[in-house]
Amino acid sequence: MQHTTMTNGSSSPPPAVAMNGQSPGASAATAITPERVQELVAALEDPFDPSEIKWRVTNTCKVGGPKGPRDRGQMLAYADPRAYTDRLNDLFTPLGWTRDYNVQTVQNFERKERGATERSITAKIVVTCRVTIYGFGVHTGLGEEWAENDNAGTAAEAQAFKRACSCFGLGRYLYDLEGQWVDLDEKKRPLETPRLPDWARPKLQRHGENGAHSEHQGNGQQQIGTNGGARNGRGGLYREELLGHVKALCGTVGFSLSKSVLQVVAKVEDPDKIRDIAKLTAAFEKLQDMARGVERLRAAVAKAGDQRYSALCRELNLASESIDDIPDRTVLRRLVETLEGGSTQTPNGTTNGTAGHGSQSDTAGLSELRGRLLREANRVSGATGRTLAVVINQAANGTFTFANLRTLGAADIGKVQTALTELERTATPA
Q: Which DSSP string corresponds to 233-273?
C-alpha cells in the first residue's frame, strides 16, 4: 500500500484555527452566530444552477416497440468539482476554506470485468479528502477508482471532494435525484436530456420567485432570472464589499477609464463578471490609482481654467470635455501634466496645479485606507473564524460599521486609521 498526501485549496489552516474550524478554546457561538450558521447552511444546500448540471448514462437495456427494439439508458445527474469550488469561494472567499488529500494505492483486488470469463488481480486508487471551512467545521470524504483507469487519480479525487462537501449539505440533493430512463442512439448517446424536478433548482428560480422569469432552453430546465442566477447572485461578504468599492470607483473615474482598467485586469467591461478575488482586488487598486489621477486633473482644471482645459481637449481630439471621454491612463497623465506644468506660481511658492491638493489627498487617502482595512479584516476573519462584518465592527468600536464603511467621508479618516491599527495589532502574533 502506497501513501501520498497533498494539499489542494486556498491555504493551510492558520495556526489560530483548531481542527474543528474554530479558534482554540472558542465555542461555536463565539466563532459564528446561530443566525449566520442558518444562512450559510441554507446557501450551501441550495441546488446548483441547471447550467452546472451534467448527465451520464449508467445502465442500458433494450426494450421493444412498434418500430422494433430500441436502446434505453438510465441517466444520473452530477456537477463538476468546479461548481462546488465556486460555491465555497462565493460564500467563504478563497481564504475561508481549504482542502487536502491523502492518496493510497491498494493492491491485490480481484476483479472480473463485464463480459470477461476470467478474473484479474488489480489495484485501486483510494483518496481521502478533508474539507475545512474556517469557523464552520471539517468533513472528510472517500473516493476510489480502479488503477488501470487513465484518469483514476482525478476521478477518485473528485469523488472524495464532492462527498466531503455533501457532509456540509453542498450538492447533497444530487444523491436524492432518481435515475431517469431515456432513449439512446446507435452510439449509446442520449437522444434527450432529462428534466430536473422543481425542487432540484435554486430557490430563486422556482416558480419565478423574486421577479425571476423562466426561459425554456434545450431540456426545458434552464432558468434565467432577473437576479442573475443563483451562483452569480451570491457572493462572500468580502467580495460584495470589494465589488461595491470597485463600482463606486468606476463611477468616479468615468466610463472609458474604468473600462480600460477592467479590460487590462480581467478582460471584461462589467465588474460583476469578475469572479476571481485576486483580479477584483487588482482592479480595485488600479482604479484607486486612476481616481487619484482624476482628482489631480480636477484640481488642475480648477486652477488653470475651463478655457485652457477645453483647448487642450480639442488638441488631443477628445470627443468632449467629460471625464467619460478620457480613453486611457496615457491621455489622463498628459492632461494632468500639461495643466499642472502650465500653472502659475503662488506667492507661497506652490503652484496652482497642485493647490487644493489637500482635499484630493484626503479623498485618495480614505479610499486607500478602506482598501487596507478590508484586506486586513479579511486576513483576521480567516485566522479567527469570525465574519468580515464582525471583525470590522469590533475594530471600529462603534465609530462606524461594516454596513456604512462605503459611505464614510474625509472627516472619518481618523476612525478608519484607528480601526486599521487595531486590526494590525490583532493580527500580529503576541
A: T---HHHHHHHHHHHHHHHHH-HHHHHHHHHHHHS-S-GGG
Q: Tell me, what amino acid is at 110?
A: E
Please say whether the dihedral angle defined by the alpha carbons of residues 170, 175, 178 and 183, taken in this order, is positive or negative.
positive
Is the full-model pTM beyond 0.85?
A: no
The answer to whether 243 touches 275, Cβ cutoff 8 Å, is: no
Q: What percent of the chain has pLDDT over 70?
A: 75
pLDDT band at 159 (very low <50, low <70, confident <90, very high): very high
Which single residue is written with the C-alpha cell 463485464? 114
Query: In which residue are the cell numbers 483548531 written?
Result: 18
Separation of alpha carbons 182 and 75, rounded Å: 7
Contact 131, 139 (CB under 8 A): yes
Which stretch of DSSP H or E encloses residue 120? strand 120-133
| Whether 82 contacts 51, CB under 8 Å | no
Between CA 385 and CA 9 the distance in angstroms is 17
Extract the C-alpha cell encoding 386. 469570525
| Residue 100 β-bridge partners | 7, 130
Question: Cell 445527474 sits at which residue?
Answer: 77
Cα separation, 256 vs 262, whole angstroms:
10
State how beta strands 53-63 and 70-79 pair: antiparallel
Given a contact cutoff of 8 angstroms between Cβ atoms, the answer to whether 258 and 287 are in contact is yes
Would you state the cell numbers that stand for residue 26, as one nine-digit string?
Answer: 472558542
In this structure, the dihedral spanned by the alpha carbons of residues 274, 278, 279 and 283, taken in order and rounded to 10 degrees, is: 110
CA 216 to chain CA mean position, Å: 27
Q: Roughly how many angstroms between the first and final C-alpha of the chain, as a whole number?
A: 43
Q: Residue 216 in contact with residue 92, Cβ under 8 Å?
A: no
Contact at 8 Å (CB) between 318 and 297? no
pLDDT (tens digit, 9 = 90+) per residue, 408-429? 777 888 888 888 888 887 654 4
Q: Which are the contacts of 1, defined by CB distance < 8 A and separation ≥ 6?
A: 104, 105, 106, 107
Q: How many residues does the chain have?
A: 430
The burial of 17, by beta-carbon neighbours within 10 Å (0-12 exposed, 13-18 middle, 19 or more buried), is given as buried
